[in-house]
């Protein structure tokens, strides 16, 4: 079904609004919503509040006020039809006098789904699937994956030399990547719910695992810091145990157990920053959904590689990535790819 230029522009704006709250809404989805008045002019907009707060539609309706009556709601996700910590969005839309709802993606959550049918029962026109691909690859990507797989979406991030080393032979690693890459990595941290490392990384590097601004100040929102420490090795003096952010220490080295525990805590997007051993375990368990690599134009010749044993012994078992982007960043190159778990490399 065709929509107007104003409605399509509203969907583009809603997608952008969802991006502004990525990493701040879990376990709820980062949704954007725009309200157009009866004449098709912008009346209000909003995005999902932190967990326990208003959904995007309610925030947009509040912004629009009486101008919502007779208007159109444009939302990135199907409005919910259930009562949780807040009331159902379909009721809020109907009560506000909305006559048409346009959304991008069907809600996969069985508890919240059914909003489109409820809206139609109330005599509201519904248009579904507008900009679905953009929405599924945007702010909603990790949340949709988590709901469909019952585990967090996992991004593995690392910085390495051009010959694949994450540290020199003497284990020094600061600084392989450029300041621009490090700033970009902090921006990535700001968009996730949790940062995951192993005890080996804590013992070797004593990382802080916080999100900082360019002036090195802590940001107001910090993701959960997670340490997998099966052998109870990390000292109480570790920086990761300070009060800058919440920290969860898990007594396991099994990725799937760890991810189940994080999912149950509301984590929908986890950033894996552990060393090559932990990365290998996650790869072997097929628990990596995205790879973000910052490659510096230096050669080290020796030192630990980015990835240790991941259960692959021949070229036929190698894991191929679908490259999504290659971006120059500072002196480095940022490569983003998605593992193709359904197919392994075939010998040619």
Query: How many distinct helices?
Result: 10
Provide the domain count: 2
Q: What is the CATH homology-level superfamily of the largest domain?
A: Dihydrofolate Reductase, subunit A
Could you estimate the helical fraction of the residues in percent? 25-40%
- Proportion in β-strands: 15-25%
What about the largest sheet? 8 strands, mixed
**CATH class term of the largest domain:** Alpha Beta
| SS-derived structural category | alpha/beta
Q: Averaged pLDDT, please?
A: 92
Please give the radius of gyration in angstroms: 22 Å
Q: Predict the CATH topology of the largest domain.
A: Dihydrofolate Reductase, subunit A
Order of strands, main sheet, comes to: 9-8-7-10-6-11-13-12
Outline type: elongated
Describe the structure.
By secondary structure, the protein is of the alpha/beta class. It folds into two domains: 5-144, 3-Layer(aba) Sandwich (Cytidine Deaminase, domain 2), CATH 3.40.140.10; 152-344, Dihydrofolate Reductase, subunit A. 26% of the residues lie in helices and 24% in strands. It is built from ten helices and 13 strands. It has helices at 5-20, 56-64, 89-95, 115-121, 132-136, 141-149, 179-189, 199-205, 255-264, 276-284, and strands spanning 32-36, 42-47, 72-77, 100-105, 125-128, 153-161, 194-198, 224-228, 247-250, 269-272, 290-296, 319-329, 332-344. Strands 9-8-7-10-6-11-13-12 form an eight-stranded mixed beta sheet. A hairpin with a 5-residue loop joins strand 1 and strand 2 (42-47). Helix 3 (89-95) runs parallel beside helix 4. The longest helix is centred in the N-terminal third of the chain and has 16 residues, at 5-20.
